[in-house]
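If you are new to this repository, start here. Below is one unmodified record pulled from the training split, so you can see the exact layout before writing a loader.
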Amino acid sequence: MDISVKQWKTFLDRCLEHRIRVEVFDNAVQQLYGRSPLPGRKIAALLLRPRSPNATSLDPRIVVYLERLLALKKVDASDVLTSAFQFSRDHPTPSSDNVEIPSKEDPSRWHNPPELEEIIFHRLHKGFSNGERPTSNAEAVRTLIVVARWMSAMVTSHTSDSMMHAMTGIQQHPQQQSINVREALGMLVMGLIENARIVGLLNRDHLKDLRKNFSQALSTFIPLLSQTSIQIANRLEISQKEHDFHDKSLTQVNGDANEQAGLEVAALQLDAVIDLPVINTRAGLFIFLNALLVARPLTDDFTIMNYLHSRYKIDSQNLATDLVTASFDLLANAMYRSEPAPTMFCLKSFLTNKIPLLLTQLTASIFPMTAEMSITQALSHIDPNAFPSFSQGFDDMLGNSNSLSDVRQDFLNACALHGLLPASSIERLLGETPMQGPPETKYERKTLFNQCKDNFDKINMYIDEIDNLDGNAGAIVGALTDFTKHLCDTQNAMYLKTFCNTLSKKAPAIDVILQFTSPASVLQPLCQFLDEWRYDGDQSEYQPLYDEFGSILLLVLAFVYRYDLSYYDLGINHDSFVAQLLERGSLSIAPGDLTEEQGIQLGGWLRGLYDADKEGLSNDVFSSCRPQDFYLIVPTLFSQTVMACSAEVLSLDSVKGGLEYLQETFLMPSLVGGLSWMACHAMKQTHQDTEALMQIFHKLVRSAPTSGDAQAMHQTVVSMVSSRLEKCFRTLKKRQPSRTDIGPLLQAIKPNANYERSISSSMTELEKWTNPPTNTLVTSLRHSVQQLAQWQTAASLQLAPPTYTHRQLYTSVKILGSYKTLRAVVDEIKSQMETGNGAAALDIGVSLICAPTIENSALPVDWVTSTIPSNPSPRTRLNLREMLKAEFENAASLMSTDPVGAETIVRLHRRVEAQLQSMSQASLPTAQIEIPNVGVIDVGTQPLTDLDMKAMNDAAAATIAAASGDLGPDQQALQRSLDQHLDLTGASGSLDLTGIDASGGMNAGMSTDLGALPDLDLSDMGGMGDMGDMGDMGDVGMGMGDDDWGLDFDNM
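And here is the target side for that same chain:
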């Protein structure tokens, strides 16, 4: 082995072993390089080689030393990537029959931990994105080759794994670390193709083979990346289209040549379509806020501000004005639509508690804005009929109508509380004397949390105050979230019971909470607490434990049923108790499918509830069945009860007597699963249990408990299942119209209606959208788009917003599908373009497509500022943005039959992608990598084979041979700056290198059998052709002499 390789290996190993400081390392590298110069690729390979067969932790010193070698220009990006790829799990193994596969103990089969690859990708992405790299055309070419190879290898590896899993029937998702590495490689590729020098090289004629191979690799890598990182994949795809980095090897061979030529002409025509002026309509922001609040609140601060800045850029003044105006429009629209009181309160809370906080963020931004001016302008734009003065609205309030006369005052008081305007301005803005002033105290989250920890009674007071429309709700929600986690962490079940009982019966408080934090932030600690619930060994009374468990569970179910949450939204695992309860909590188990333990537990509960010879539910029944097990067999318990009652095995009186236990607080939450099963079972037409079911319904629904706590809990339970019960009772009424016992049940649940806040439309709304004059969902949706688009032109005269709810779009997508829904929107925009209102209609279309949704959202709502961020929205079908992209790709074929429609699709697609791209750029992760604090790994010896870099070296040598000249002025200035920053002559300490000799005398016990450096065979990149003449590279602005880069190309 080369003596220089041995010296460098010994030096690097000893530096890692003794944790040499950076300044000492720099001096030592300079000394050793002067004595024993070595190509950068070999130095990088010696540093990055694995030092143990199963390395799972990363030595942070490797990253530190790698950074220094890059800064000292002893290695470049291609050297680092080449070596990292050689030791990556993505690197393909030899497949030739003549090649003997080494054993697992062979160092050539060792791999580095994925964290190292992730850090390297992010570090190099930063260098290419800020223009620091490439420092030479040789580095650029070699980097492109190895990155293309790595992308292809990653796709091949994933495809092979997927095929193996499919063959074995195993469904396996990629691990998070693999996703991180994939995303990091995507970021690096993004940095490359957004680098002007890299793009300039790829556009050279003599590098067309390199461009072809890179484009092929990119075309296969983007679909793989889109499976886990849609934002990065979208940005790569946009850059790919911009620079035409497409795989053109799959061009259609068969087909009509004339037709293909016609499509190409049509594509050119579409490229030349002129965009209409971009305007921010009043309706556009109105649609966005409607989408945020139509069901489960999606009011994440980061999402809202990101969206607003993507529309208004630096115009913070108009941004604030339009935000306030749209919030008032939302309330006016809800009043005109006669939305129920819970919806009205939710919108009022958003206006008075959320909007002032968003305005506070705007006033603190770098773009100046005057909050009072924006508020004044907004109040002049709102509908005075919807928001009358106190004197005008007094008669309405006496008549209990849905007056909004107090909303302006509440909003201005909240703004004064947050310092957005002086309290003295409120009377001027209202035009009359306010009925009350701002709150005396502005709450702080941490202060409230500490008060609750010191005095538990405070929590009940703050839960009551969360309903106040005074601007303090955000701080209260933050304190409640922190306090919930605190109680769970401290295992304080008694306090948790009281807290959950208080909150579960206040549905409006639940609405306010989810306007300020993610569902997981509140519910994940509670779900984990329930999942880990265990009996103590010295427990004597078990009924109180059921009481505590049930209270906590009821609060979780209250959130779940109100907003149709899944375990995914709660941030819990599929095998956890709450996840299993949500999946199976309303399904009975057939007797043959019961486990032995479940059979024993079910028998115990049946005897305890209905056996007249017993004393009722004894302590043994509770002790022999954990609460988690009980709630999973509740539907089966009800199934057995109904069946026994129908068969007269149990008398009706016995059943009613036993069911009274279920109306006590310690078992009351079980009625959620029991009533849900009964409602589902009653609608089946394959049973003869109707009489027994109706008797039990009357007992459980109409007969409320007597105690106050039980009554409140019973009301909450009935509210949660009211929609299912109503559907069941109305179905039975249609089947048996002569029955007289169904009407009282419908009347009993009527006060509990409208509990659910989901994306599903009511029958009243569906009938309105499908009956004359609209007749169909398509024409109804087109009519809504038309009204919203024309509101822009009539806004000065028509202050009231058009009637609209985002549930209409949800319903259209669900019933019609994404394609027909998109076509309805596009057709109406096309129609508006023909009447000269195209710019406003385009903004409406963009707002509809880009609006965040509960599922399949084009705009992610991650709640990144919450205690626990949300998971990405589930994907069940193509969203409107993806369908628009498919239509855009097919737009050329429409030019001959519908040219205006094709142009509309192109314009709409451009606007949608531009807006989402601007938002994704703001939300992309930065390349700030935290190096994990790991222990020093055992540094062993490893024989390395020699690197065969023929393909990369040929390309680099050709690059250098084709270039001439010195560094330009900019590069010389950069070089001087680097020299100044890397001048370590004054650094303290030094590292004596005299002890490093060819025999490894630095450590007598260290093996010097170093072997050869590893090979990286890139010859299969194929088709690189003769790259000997790379032309004049001078216009790239880089001199290409050997001395310019400090690289030794003699051995390349």
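Two things worth knowing about this chain: The chain has five domains: 39-92+110-243, 301-391+401-430, 445-574, 595-752, 763-922. DSSP finds 48 helices and no strands in the chain.
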